[in-house]
Design brief:
Elements: H1 13-23, H2 47-50, H3 65-68, H4 73-93, E1 98-101, H5 106-118, E2 123-126, H6 127-139, H7 150-156, H8 159-173, E3 179-182, H9 190-196, E4 200-205, H10 214-226, E5 232-235, H11 242-259, H12 262-276
Parallel strand pairs: 1-3, 1-4, 2-3, 4-5
Amino acid sequence: RRRGSGGGARASRDDMTALVLLLTGASLAPGLQRPVPTPLLPGRWSAAACSSRAPVVRCQEEIPASALENIPPAAMADAWMRDEKARELGEALKGCSVYLVGLGSPKLEAVGRIFSRRLPKYRYYSVPELMCSTYATLSGGEEGAAAPMMSDLYEAEPMDDVTSLARAITDQVQQYTRAVVRSWEGSVSTSDFAVMQQGIVVRVVGMEPEPSSGAVEEAREGWAEKHSAADVTVSVETEAPTDDIVFAVVKGLLEFIEKNPGKSDEWKSKADALQAEGWSVDN
């Protein structure tokens, strides 16, 4: 259901559910090659990023020898250490998904993307980005028009509708193992955490959220307090480099798993059960 500023037909909940399935579940079904769109800038959707005809930018998988020569030995050792810790975490997680919670911040988006790339065979899902993508489609915007941001949803839609959209998308992405999921900042209800805590919930505190309307700013105070229900809390400095924040998340998770070794068997059992039902841990 939507209440667009320009009026028009309302989208039914069935329409919304079908679209969410298309953007999340169907895009990962075996044999399909339609990936979830990835924005070029955090928090913004790009027509080029969403187009199946957009050119693919390929990066070198190995650092050129000439560049390696210019990297200080201490920096190189630190990079190797961080990579090894990420691999250690990937093994310890045993396919368990990780949910990142925190107030809406482009930096948290970047943390989620980099973190997922450090974990072998993990995928990244941004619930806020999928919310914006779904809303843009339901709104029937013109092709090539500026993509909506969360601030647009907050301004145009009742908070109950925004919450319903977030829950529908979260329900879809939680079906997959080996996922790093950046949750919507307002997903703080008991039912929201019941879904997220099928994996491990990590709260990242200290990053400056994007400015928003007065009503949302007031709501954020309550949201931030309820984020404390997360399994792991990582406190960072506002200006901390993104890679340092990612490493702090890795260390926090390793410490949590070390203190809760029994959970590893539970996560592995869930992953095995999903595989038996036909779900792929790689997808």
